[in-house]
Amino acid sequence: MVITRLIRNLVASTAVLATLATSSRAADERDYYRLVSIITSKAPTGSRAKFWKPPPKDLVLEVSGMAVLDDKRLAVTIRKGEVWFLGGVYDDPPGSLTYKRFAHALHEPLGLLKHGDGFYTAQRTELTKLRDIDGDDVADEYLSIANGWGVTGNYHEYAYGPKLGRDGNLWLTLNIGMGFKGDQRTRMVRNKGLGVAQARWRGWGVKITPQGKLIPVCAGMRSPSGLGANRAGDMFYTDQQGNWVGTNSLHHMRSGAFFHHPEALASMDLPGSPLRNITEIPNGLPFPEAARRLPALKPPAVWFPYKKVGQSATDIVLDNSRGRFGPFDGQLFVGEFTLASISRVFLEKIDGQYQGACFPFREGMASAVIRLAQGTDGSLFAGLSNRGWSSLGTASYGLQRLVWSGKMPFEIKELRARPDGFELVLTKPVDSSTAADTSSFAVNSYTYTYHATYGSNEILKKDLVIQSATVSADGYRIRLKIDGLRQMYVHEIHAPGLRSRDGLPLLHPAGYYTLNRIPRAR
Amino acid sequence: MIFPRCTWNHPILKPGFLRLLPVVIAFTLSLPQPLRAVEIPYPFVSGFERFVRPGDLSIERGGRLLIGELGCGACHLSRPGQSAPKPGPRLDAAGRRLQHRWLARYLADPAATDPGTTMPDVLHGLKANEKVPTIEALVAFLSTRREAFPPLKSTASKPIAPRFWDKGDRERGRVLFHQVGCVACHEPASDYRTTPKPASELEKLLRQLDPEELKELGLDAAARPFASVPHGDLPAKFPREALAHFLLNPESVRPAGRMPSLKLDPAESADLVAYLRPASPSPAAPAPPARELVERGRGLFVSLQCANCHSGGVGIKATRFARRFEQLNPKAIGSCLGNPSDRQPRYRIDKFQRKALTAAMLKPALPVAVSLEQDFLTMNCYACHVRNRKGGVGPRRRVYFETAGHVDLGDEGRLPPPLDGVGRKLKTGWLSKVLDGTGDVRPYMLARMPRFPAHTGVAIPKKLLSADRKTVTTVAGIFGNLKNLPAAGRTLTDRGCVQCHPIRGERLPGVVGIDLAGTTERIQPDWMREFLFDPAGRKTRTRMPTFFPKGKSNSPDVLQGNVDRQLAALWAYMADIGRQPLPEKIVRNRVDNYELVPKKRPLLLRTFMQQVGQHAIAVGFPEKIHFAFDARGGTIVQAWRGRFLDAHATWFNRFIPPAAPLGVDIIGLPGGLIVSPLQNGGDPWPTADAPATLYRFRGFRLDKAGVPTFLYSVGDLQIQDRLEPQRNRGLRRRLTITTAAAADPDRPTAWVRAHLGKTLKPRGRREYVNEAGLAVSIPGDLTGAARLLNDKQQSEWRIPLVITRSKTLEIVYRW
Fold this sequence. Notes:
The structure holds two protein chains of two kinds. By secondary structure, chain A is mostly beta strands. Chain A has four helices and 35 strands. Chain A folds into two domains: 30-404, 6 Propeller (Neuraminidase); 410-515, Sandwich (Immunoglobulin-like). In chain A, the strands form eight sheets. In chain A, strands 19, 21, 22, 23, 24, 30, 31, 34 and 35 form a nine-stranded antiparallel beta sheet that branches. A four-stranded antiparallel beta sheet of chain A has the order 1-27-26-25. Chain A has a four-stranded antiparallel beta sheet with strand order 2-3-4-5, with no helix packed on it. In chain A, a hairpin with a 5-residue loop joins strand 32 and strand 33 (477-482). The longest helix of chain A is centred in the first third of the chain and has 22 residues, at 2-23. Chain B has 31 helices and 21 strands. In chain B, the strands form five sheets. Chain B has an eight-stranded antiparallel beta sheet, with no helix packed on it. In chain B, helix 9 (170-179) packs across helix 15 (266-276). Chain B is elongated, with a radius of gyration of 39 Å. The relative contact order of chain B is 0.07. At the A-B interface, helix 1 and strand 9 of A face helix 1, helix 6, helix 8, strand 4 and strand 5 of B.
């Protein structure tokens, strides 16, 4: 009867309300990671407007690269082509910023690295070293360290970086061109067999040796707007969903790897290419099947399931703070453009190859997060600009800082593959009754279609049965035994019923593991 | 007496319930309170409350309004001309949209649950033991109405946060509620503070007068506050997701359009949700109801005539109607108007409403102007707009209407425009766009013109046209021949209009007025002419000044000061504004922002240039002589005089079109490398496609004065290449060539190709001029060894250099 049901609902809701009264505020990212707006544009501008203009008299802080200088100053590149030294960036609340222009007349620089006696930035056409010779904090020397990649004039031919890898090599990624017009096509190289054309080394990751030699490393990138090294010094890059790219992804850059976008193979036969003899690209197959047919095709270390963990991955930064940024020391944080947020990545090596899991981390930035850098105090600087695309948020560009409050969030810190399931490592001890209850969890797996079409649905989706959940004595680890793990599939592990010992649900109740390899039982 | 009819085994009276009663009451009290509980015991119809009750409109007119708004015609079919019944909310998605608990309460007593509702109580005649199962069946049926919310696709250009309805910000929502126009109809929060604004002349006047004086001046209506449209208990009624979707597109739920769309984006809608419906748990959806019960509810939905007003999904159709409207007897003892029988709906109308309805019934159809007024009343256009001294935002709500950035534009900048004579002023096509929500021209006004349902966009403009426009005019009839006039129009626009109006998005600093682009598509030529000639005469209290004081132009130098021709010229310029150059002041302002004008030091821009390519480095000098270097080819490609470059495209255009020299006397400099090692002086000069091993760009250095010296290598020659203006006429190029290799005094280390052309003609001893007019001179001590090479295609002037360690030479370009 309606009324009895009404009453039942009322009573149930009262109970829910009582629970939420203690927990709903706690279940908020803001309580653990606080956002400090250092500078944001006064008003959002239609980011795709044909005659895009910043507010008048504004320093157009479309932060496209960042280098931490010391515990007061940060150097940033801005997209219109300048480098600025910003002082007072750690003030909390933000006090008076100081500005000093270090360099100008750069062509859309998309990275900044302080290294040796200068600053390095990738412009559209070259890797440039900027040096102040006379000590007035203004660059006098703009040295061209490396070039040699093709530039047709297409707007999408961005060059990102550099980031410092092992052995002092500087790494760059080169966006492919899209929507060529007019005479741009005359500046391409072609691979007739595959029927692909792009400018030289477009869609490639390259490294520049300290001697300035450009070494092409790996190919098949679509829109590799962020790269970064992990603690071991291995270099990774993110790619963005699009044609041939089912969803956003994180890849380990290593010699001879081909990731997905075939147009990069236009440069396959150029001198210096570590790739050879790819004669056919499978189109329209599930990714695991495509990878079997084409051994050069390497799966990403992590897929970011679309919208669940971002919609357009950007920069990569290592949490190298030894705990000053919370419990995630050694993990990677990844910027997110469209949703103006930051995601988190845990990586492990199985059979010598990287794979791992991603998690949502913090949303609510003022604009698209295109650059990340860790400050001397462990906090994360987020460089913002959404021009050309669009993002959530209230601004067109700016600089914000994410500070750990010191309060421990209840999160899945690590999600590790096991021969028969997964191990969850939590940031806080769990409540054993919820942790040992298999109904606290839900697991499914799926993959993507490798095809020339834009993006992919999650395909071949399957719900998996959890056989058991076992909690470690200290309460920090849970072993899930799961039937039917599938190699090369994304495994989503949800833990909505899990509670910490102090009664909290997970701040982000799911992790997304890219199971390229199932570890062998020892 | 109801109580004795109750059976004691009714669940509501079971001991279990009684035990829970305190919990229920406590819970109810703990629910967030609506912004302000407005107790309205009778159906609330804005136009009726505002204009009929106080006596501004006749009681008969009021009755006619109620006939439509209370939906009489939904059951009492009538001839066309009678007020069309307002359709009720669509219930196709009621199962998703409404909280079941609220729905049950609402059905049990609509007016008490949602004060001011126009829905009658159709269950009042049921006995208590019938009523509960009836409600249960209706709720069960409605809970199966689960049409999906309109899909919202999150795209790269319009991203939407996942679960956007939960991501709102309460404070932003509060500001939106009070800024974008919600409070034109709904009640503002008593603690919301707006920015103080200077009182307008009218406000001052209203404050000074006493009620009698106001009445005498016909201003009593303008001075009178009016009641707010209640919106009930939103947290109890809606889940957050449903409210967010409703605010995004009210028409999808309420086709009548009485609540128009304020053109929110999903994030804004979420902000409003956060404000209007703070987070509180929505009860879990009850288990799916029994099929039998649903079927019963479906039957009741039709038999109780719910379907006459509400769409209930596919296959649900009204089948039962009451007596035709024309046959109704307003004096009947029992009817919808009062003392309804058990089977008639019970409206909670008050005495006055009853009187109005009675007066209006059985009256003939209305003339157009009156029916236009009826449209204004039903759609509540009067909430914002004044027309014929009726309506407007009223004295209490004026403060919530603000100008973006608090720029002082007076009331014109913040209040919705009056609509007197608007059918004569605006073209009907444009009026339709305005009603359709796509005709926004006042970016400075924070209140938004809502989007109304499509049918209003057709009907209202037509009625406005026929009410306001007496004569049909043509542009030629008003302005005569417009040929050759735009240039003069541009001058006049530059003198006046640009001080307040942007044009095609370009503006002088601080200017926020209506963009003049599109004016002639919006406004009728005769009105525009009158307005330009005498702004205040057409629009009371406008900020627009006159440019024709006492009927004479204040620009007597333009078109001989002929007022008619000047007015025509302004129209001609605006009509062709997409193709005409921008007014000079705006052009100059653009220059100030994005044109690179070297003042004291040289300026550099790395960019794409059509002639120079993708690796261009342009260098501009205060002496107004500039050049562009191709870093890929190692070539100074071109030079020019006058203005340098506009950087807007390079800095901010997504598609980075190439930058082009803005100046004059653009000249191509000799192509290719300027220096090369050659085996023999007559060897072919290395082409641009020479192996990358030959040439390598190494960057540049800026000296104290900011002049760049380009660094590159050709073979094992290291080159420093520096150009500077030469006496404001040409460029002086200083090349320093360094080599590590040991020099052989009998063999040149390097050759310099100083000049190039189809033909080279000597001018004096040290200079050659090519067919393009470029003169190149070299130092006198090198002329002896220099060689002129001629072949069919071109001539080259080459100089051998013997370099021991380093050699510097200067070349001068003049053109």
